[in-house]
């Protein structure tokens, strides 16, 4: 998809509109980047937002049909996706530069913000709508032309948002913003409220069947609270999680994206069990077969197991017991990635210490869900470069130009 050009070129045998009704969608055949004024860019983004809201139910059904995400979650993603367009339609009007007063009376220093040019966006399958609008909304607001390559597993969700044309960048130095996943720790300290921690763990781990880059991947639970947390977590999983068809009412856990995803979860479970871990609940493919896997909780997990070292990207919650705050920090920061981290504590001093020491780009304190349009999304270390969303997200698509104006 190149936003700002003529129609799509699609080699698939299925037309993206087939079976769906997108009222007014052709109106978004954007000359978006052919316009240069802020008000025009803002207006077009707002128009795209309105079209998404008008067609939210059909857009959600495509997501569920493509990746199995429960329909309720898919509907939430569409609203979340649209909000990025609304947000950046407003941020387009607030791209300000600076005037810097220097020591020389006859000079003024100006800093201008200008679009970087063509932006190439490569998006994942687990949020096939939101991962496009979060990037494209910012790029268009800044005044960039955008080329989007959607994930091969979910092309029609992307095709439904706009007209798609696959392009590759030229061989030259290109500015890069990357969100590359993580290995999120979820720490529960002795001072935590167990019920709150369990609720947060459910929300953080099992959204989209564990297939999000900020899903908790390692649960670190302090010895004094460990047994009660594991017991309550297992009970909550059995009570609240229902595996099934994403279109069926009440389903909270749809299928994983493909066979390789299932095999990876199985590999992590079998590796952990072979090294001494205990299956508390779940542990195998669901009776529905195909790409369904039981929500699984493991205890007696150690740092040498694959599930402690690799991002599982599935419904597996491994619990590691620890003794001290210092030990938890060491375990959490041992990974070479640092996208998100979570911890539960009622100790104010501990909250400040841990929040500052966790080597991640986003921290959830007594909170299992943290993504929002208004806040910066991104990580440190090998989890990527730059930030998306918020007022900072537009900076990735802007160049700073310093102008020294003399002779005044």
From TrEMBL:
Domain Aldehyde dehydrogenase residues, every copy: 31-165, 167-403
E.C. no: 1.2.1.24
Protein name: Succinate-semialdehyde dehydrogenase, mitochondrial
Active-site positions on this chain: 179
InterPro entries per UniProt: Ald_DH/histidinol_DH (IPR016161), Ald_DH_C (IPR016163), Ald_DH_CS_CYS (IPR016160), Ald_DH_CS_GLU (IPR029510), Ald_DH_N (IPR016162), Aldehyde_DH_dom (IPR015590), Aldehyde_DH_Superfamily (IPR050740)
Lineage: Eukaryota, Metazoa, Chordata, Craniata, Vertebrata
Keyword Oxidoreductase recorded: yes
Similarity annotation: Belongs to the aldehyde dehydrogenase family.
Keywords: Oxidoreductase
Enzyme class: oxidoreductase
Entry annotated with the keyword Oxidoreductase: yes
